[in-house]
Design brief:
By secondary structure, the chain is an alpha/beta fold. Helices cover 35% and strands 25% of the residues.
Length: 255
């Protein structure tokens, strides 16, 4: 498969351009050029030394990640940035990144993957960010207790053995659930306004405890990394259908 075809297909499917003015991440191709062929594509949550080295060692021609190396500009390529980028350049491994476009994608996104794990139906966009959304919300047909919902998250997510932290301030039976992966606690007010019973996210700011308590919304903190493995895994399955061989590089952080 030509590299340019891979990049164009990903950009089109993920609607990369729609998030250009909304995301600090430079989404799309971050390292490398559009020329050449792609036989093997590696996928990982983070573009860091460990995953870059694993991609190089696997013989990948491209690495697709959720978190890249360019956030709001890159002044110079030295130190940590050099250590991450140099192996990509030296081995002609292209780096493609999809941050917010992959968070809220209705089928391929991280929030969609968590919603699948929870069996949510009647889904709608959640997590308004300008004209776009970065999460999903839906209904649990049989309802959950807080303990049961946390158990499902612990069973389904790659949380590195750290488990799921729960702020059980919502109703005894949880039916309506909002999901915004990673660092999604800033959208608690939207969850409250929509009348959902629970918000599932990755990590929280200190103020969340009292905000959730006062709002009467349960919050489940399932780990930033753990909630954001779904998108790159979905992209892996998609790219496999296009022809290249694929490899998933799992490097859980426990955070």
């Amino acid at each position: 498969m030509r590299r340019s075809d891979l990049l164009d297909r990903l950009d089109e499917r993920l609607r990369t351009d729609a998030y250009a003015d909304l995301d600090a991440s430079a989404n799309g191709l971050q390292v490398g050029d559009r020329e050449g062929e792609v036989e093997t594509v590696a996928f990982a949550v983070d573009a860091v030394e460990a995953t870059v080295e694993a991609a190089v060692d696997s013989g990948a021609d491209a690495l697709v990640t959720h978190h890249g190396v360019v956030w709001g500009g890159l002044d110079r390529v030295t130190g940590r940035e050099y250590d991450r980028i140099a192996p990509l350049v030296a081995n002609d491994v292209a780096l493609y990144v999809s941050h917010l476009p992959l968070d809220g994608h209705p089928e391929l996104g991280n929030a969609a993957g968590v919603a699948d794990a929870l069996g949510l139906v009647d889904r709608e966009p959640f997590g308004e960010l300008g004209p776009e959304y970065v999460g999903r919300r839906g209904v649990a047909p049989d309802g959950y207790t807080a303990e049961a919902l946390a158990d499902v998250l612990e069973a389904e997510l790659d949380h590195g053995g750290e488990g799921v932290r729960t702020l059980a301030f919502g109703p005894d039976v949880i039916e309506e659930v909002a999901v915004l992966t990673g660092s999604g606690s800033d959208w608690l007010r939207e969850a409250e306004a929509l009348g959902v019973d629970a918000l599932v996210t990755g990590e929280a700011k200190g103020k969340l405890y009292h905000e959730a308590r006062e709002a009467g919304v349960s919050v489940f903190l399932a780990g930033h990394y753990a909630t954001e493995t779904f998108g790159v895994r979905a992209l892996r399955s998609l790219v496999e259908e296009w022809g290249p061989e694929t490899k998933y590089i799992d490097h859980p952080t426990g955070l």
